[in-house]
Structures are given as structure tokens and as C-alpha cells.
Design brief:
Largest sheet: none
Radius of gyration: 30 Å
Order of helices and strands: HHHH
């Protein structure tokens, strides 16, 4: 049986191993966090690009439809043609916005994996 002095002399070695383990654990968590941060940045950039392109295309279509309606319709039907074009492009814009909102609602929460791992690691063994 090791004496108290032997255990005391091995304390720095044990603390060094514990410190090394804590550093590796922190490095693993930082790596996971950075991967999830990149995924989030990529998702937000793609969503922004899709919304910006959708808004731009919707505005251009509305502008061209308005110009074509004014040029092609007889004077007595011009107002009705403008209203129909506005209704069609308004519905398309609403559909694109609705799809974007649904995509935001159905995706996993940001940093989901890191938070779950942190919950599991901070849970006491007897709490199950």
C-alpha cells in the first residue's frame, strides 16, 4: 500500500495529466464550436443570397410586367392588367418569404450539437 508521502510526491504528475486532459477537452470543444459556427455562417449566407435574389427578381418581374401591361393593353383595360400583375408577383413574393420562414423554423437550433454535448458532460452520474 502506497504511503501518504508517495501519493503526495505523485500529485504534480497527476495534476499535470489532469491539466493535459482539460486542455485537450477544451481544444475539442473549440474545434466543434468552430465547425458549427462555419455551418451557421454558410446557412445564413445562403439564406441571405436566396432572399436577396428573390426580392431582386420579384422587383424586376413586377417592373417588366407593369411596362408590358401598359404597352400591350388597350387603354380601358390597363388598370385591370396592372392589378393582375401586382397580384401574381405579390403571391410569388409571399411564397418565397413563406418558404424562407419555414426553412428557418424547421432547421436545428444553432450550436445544437455543442449544447447537447455540454449538457451530457455537466450532468452528474447519479442524475439519470
Amino acid at each position: 500500500m502506497p504511503s501518504s508521502l508517495d501519493r503526495l510526491l505523485r500529485l504534480p504528475e497527476s495534476m499535470g495529466r489532469a491539466w493535459s486532459l482539460a486542455r485537450r477537452l477544451a481544444a475539442n470543444r473549440a474545434e466543434l464550436f468552430s465547425l458549427e459556427l462555419r455551418e451557421e455562417a454558410s446557412f445564413v449566407a445562403g439564406l441571405f443570397l436566396a432572399l436577396a435574389l428573390g426580392l431582386f427578381c420579384g422587383a424586376m418581374c413586377l417592373l417588366l410586367a407593369t411596362a408590358a401591361a401598359i404597352a400591350l393593353l388597350p387603354p380601358e383595360h390597363r388598370l385591370l392588367g396592372l392589378a393582375a400583375a401586382a397580384l401574381v408577383y405579390g403571391a410569388a413574393a409571399a411564397l418565397l418569404i413563406g418558404l424562407s420562414l419555414r426553412k428557418l423554423r424547421t432547421r436545428p437550433k444553432p450550436f445544437h450539437e455543442s449544447l447537447e454535448l455540454l449538457k451530457r458532460e455537466t450532468r452528474c452520474p447519479g442524475d439519470d
